Amino acid sequence: MAPLTMIEAIRDALVHEMERDERVMVLGLDVGRLGGVFRATHGLLERFGPERVVDMPLAEGAIIGSSLGLALSGLVPVPEIQFLGFTHQAFHQIGPQLARYRFRSRGRYHCQVTIRAPFGGGVRTPEFHPDAIEAQFVQTPGIKVVCPATPADARGLLLSAIRDPDPVLFIEPQRLYRRGREEVPEGDATVPFGRLRIARPGSDLTLIAWSAAVELCLRAAERLEEDGISAAVLDLRTLVPLDVAGLVAEVARTGRAVVVHEAPLSAGFGAEIAATLQEECFYSLDAPVARVAAWDSPYPTGPLEAWYLPTLERVVEAARRTAAR
Amino acid sequence: MTGYRILDPDGNLLDGARPRLGPEGAVEGLRWMLLSRAFDARATAMHRQGRFGTYSPVRGQEASVVGSSMALDPTVDWIAPSYRELPALVRHGMPLERVFAGYLGRGKAARIPDEVRLLPNQVALATQLQHAVGLAWGLALQRKPGVVMAYCGEGASSEGDFHEACNLAGVKRAPVVFVLINNQWAISTPRSVQSAGELYRRAEGYGFPGVQVDGNDLLAVYEVATEAVERARAGEGPTLIECLTHRQSFHNTTDNPRLYLPEGWLEQAEREDPIRRLEAYLAAQGVWDDGVRAAVEAEIAEQIEGALETALAMPAARPEDLFDDVYADPPERLRRQREELLGRAGD
Q: Residue range B309-336: average pLDDT?
C-alpha cells in the first residue's frame, strides 16, 4: 500500500471492515454525501449505499442511543460524533447506557459499537471542537477508550475496535489527520488494545502521552537530545485498557517520568498515570512524576489556544527539571 | 378529556362499539391485571418488612400496560420497558420468579432469558426510547420481522430523548410503537407542569399518527395498540399512543403521596378503576362472577407464592457479579480488582 495519512488510514479501515462484515454500518452527521467534515467516510455512501452509510438527524443522543439499539438488533454500528466535545449532548447515552448495558442486563446483551470522534487543539477550531474530555469516559466502566497517534495505529486499532464485542470510544487527533504519511500494514493487521508503543527509545527519562501529544513529545525528545538528555516517548494507545505492566517497566528503567496531555491538569488522565506509577514503582523513581497539561480553564477560541495547550517549551522545561532532580 | 374508549367507567359498552378483543381475550387480560395487582400488594408488603428492593406499583395503570402488550407476538416482537410495566414483561415471557429475583437482590438469577425479546428495565427516563428506535430500525434493515413497543410516562415525555427518539423513528419509519402512559403524576409533579400542549398531538410534528386512549379501558387500549402494531408490521412506521390513566398508588415504596395529592384525587381515580370496569363488563357478558374471580385469585396467589419460593431458593448475589459482566475481555486492572475483592471476601 502507498503511504497513508491518518484520515486515509481510518477510511481504509472502515472500508475494510464494511467489506469483511456486512453487519458493519456507519452513521452520523454529514457522513454520507459529504463524506464527513474531515472526509473520513468519503466514498462510502457510493460504495455501500444509504442503508449502511446513514446521514442522521442532528441529535447526538439519537446517534448513540439508536446505535445501541442497532447493535441489539444484530448490526455493528460505527457512529461518528462530529467532534468529541459534542458527545456532551450524548453523554447520558454513552456512560450510563452504552457502557453499562452488558452489566445492567447481567450479560444478556452486549453492544458492539465503536464511536469515532475527532478532538484536540492546535487547528483553531470553534468552541467545543477541540475539547480533550477523554478522561470523563475512563470514569464510565464498560467502554474502552482508544486514542491512536499514527496512521498505522489508527488503522490497526480501528479494526480491533470494530471487532471488539464491547463499546469503544475511538478518538482521533484532528491536528494529525493530514500531518504526514507512513506505511500502514494492510489486510487484517489489527493492533491489540492494552499494549503501549515505544515511540522513541531513551534512557534518561520517559515522556508519556497519547494521541496528538505523542507528536509533541517526539519533538521535545529531539530538542532534549541536543542538551544531551536521552528521552524515551511512550504512546499509551489505549487508556482503557491501560498497559500498567508496560508503563511500569518502562518508567522503572529510567526512574523519571513526565506525562503530557491536552486536557486540563486537575483529574486529567495524567493524574491516573502519576498515581499508578507511585503505587507500582515508587522505589524505582528518582524524581517526582511531572505533569504538563492544559490549564484548569475552559478551552479557549482563537489565538488564546497557543497559551492554553502544552507547548514544546513547557514539555522541554519539565523534562529538564525532572532529569536534574 | 377521556380519549378513545369502548367501555364507560361502569363497564357498559358504548353505543355501536364492537370490541376487537373477544370475551376470552378480555378474561385473559383481566387475569394479567389481577396478577399485577396481587404482585403489587405482595411486593409492597415485603418492602415494608425490609425483604424487597424499591418497587414501583402498577396499580391503576393495569389496563394500559396489559392492553398494549397483548397486541404483541412474543415470538417476534420486542418490549423496551421503563420500570412500571410488570404484567407486560411477564406476559412477554419474563419468568415471574426472575422478576422476584431482581427485587430480592439475587444477581445473575434475575437475568432476562435469552429467548425473551425484552430489554432491561430502564430508570434513566426516556433513554430506552432511543434504544427501541435503533432496535426497530435495525430489524427493518435486516428484513427481520418484529415490532418494538417502548413504554414511558408523561414525565419522561419532557426529556430530550423523547423528542430525539420520536423524531428519528419518524424519519426512519421504524416499526416502533410508543406507549406513553400518562398517569398524571411524575412523583409529585402534576401533568400540568410537564407540558402546555396535548402529548399525543406531538406525533403530528414527527410525521406519524398519535392517539389518545382511555387507559383504564382494556378493550380500547388493546384495539388502538393492535392497530399501531399492524401499521408497524406493514412497514407504515411508528405510532404514539397516549394512555390516560391514574397512578393509584405511590411513585415507589419510598414515596408518600399524601404530601401532594389533592383531596379527592385518589377517590376519583379509584372510581375509574380499570379492573372494576372490566369485571362489570365481563359479568354482563356472562363470563365473570364472584366464583370465577375467587378461583382466578386463588390460582394467582399460588402462582405468586410459587414464584417467590423459587426465587428465594435461587443463588444469592456474589461479589464476582460486580466484575463478570462489565467487559467480555476485562482489562488486566479490573481482573486484579476482582482478585483483590474475592481474596477479601474469602477472609
A: 95
Indicate if B328 and B180 belong to the same structural domain: no
Question: Are residue B231 and residue B340 in the same domain, yes or no?
Answer: no
Residues A112 and A246 in one domain: no
Name chain B contacts of A73, Cβ cutoff 8 Å.
134-139, 141-142, 144
- Annotated active-site residue B260? The verdict is yes
Spell out which residues of chain A touch residue B325, defining contact as CB-CB under 8 Å: 102-103, 105-107
B23 touches A at CB < 8 Å: no
Is residue B347 predicted with pLDDT exceeding 70? Answer: no
| Mutate which: A75, A97, A106, vs B, most B CBs within 10 A | A106
pLDDT tens per residue, range B211-251: 999 999 999 999 999 999 999 999 999 999 999 999 999 99
Quick: pLDDT tens for B112-142: 999 999 999 999 999 999 999 999 999 999 9
CB contacts of A166 in chain B (<8 Å) are 327-329
Residue B46, domain member (yes or no): yes
Are residues A170 and A140 part of one domain?
yes
Task: Check whether residue B334 and residue B307 sit in a common domain.
Answer: no
ipTM value: 0.97
Tell me the C-alpha to C-alpha distance, in Å, between residue B302 and each of A147, B48, B288, B305: 56, 21, 20, 5
Residue A191 belongs to a domain: no
Which residues in chain A touch residue B130, judged by CB atoms under 8 angstroms apart? Answer: 61-62, 64-66, 68-69, 93
Pairwise CB contact (< 8 Å): B138 & A70:
yes
Please judge whether A105 and B127 are an interchain contact, meaning their C-beta atoms are less than 8 angstroms apart. Answer: no
Structural domain that includes position A55: 6-176
> Structurally, how many domains does chain B consist of?
2
A303 near B CB under 8 A: no
Domain of B332 in residue numbering reads as 319-347
Q: Does B328 touch chain A (CB under 8 A)?
A: yes
Q: Which 170-229 residues of chain B touch chain A by CB within 8 A? A: 171
When pLDDT is cut at 50, 70 and 90, the band that residue B345 belongs to is low
Q: Are residues A170 and A202 in the same domain?
A: no
| pLDDT one-digit tens code per residue, A221-271 | 999 999 999 999 999 999 999 999 999 999 999 999 999 999 999 999 999
Instruction: Give the integer Cα–Cα distance in Å for A100 and A247.
Output: 27
DSSP secondary structure of B259-324 = GTSPTTHHHHHHHT-HHHHHHHHHHHTTS--HHHHHHHHHHHHHHHHHHHHHHHTSPPP-TTHHHH
**CA distances, B69 to each of A178, B32, B38 (Å):** 53, 11, 19
Q: Is B55 a catalytic residue?
A: no
Q: Would residue B330 count as lying in a domain?
A: yes
Residues 6 or more apart whose Cβ sits within 8 Å of residue A12: A1, A4, A155, A184
For residues B147-170, average pLDDT: 98
What pLDDT score was predicted for residue A1?
Answer: 74
Across the interface, which of B131, B144, B171 has its CB nearest the CB of A68? B131
Q: How many structural domains are present in chain A?
A: 2
Contacts of B321 in chain A (CB under 8 A): 106
Grid coordinates given for A22: 456486512
Residue B165 sits in the same domain as residue B79: yes
* Strands B78-80 vs A205-209: parallel, antiparallel or unpaired: unpaired
H helix runs in chain B, sequence order: 23-48, 62-69, 86-91, 96-103, 127-141, 160-172, 191-194, 202-206, 218-233, 265-271, 274-284, 290-312, 321-324, 332-345
- The yes-or-no answer on residue B251 being catalytic is yes
Whether residue B3 is contained in a domain is answered as: no
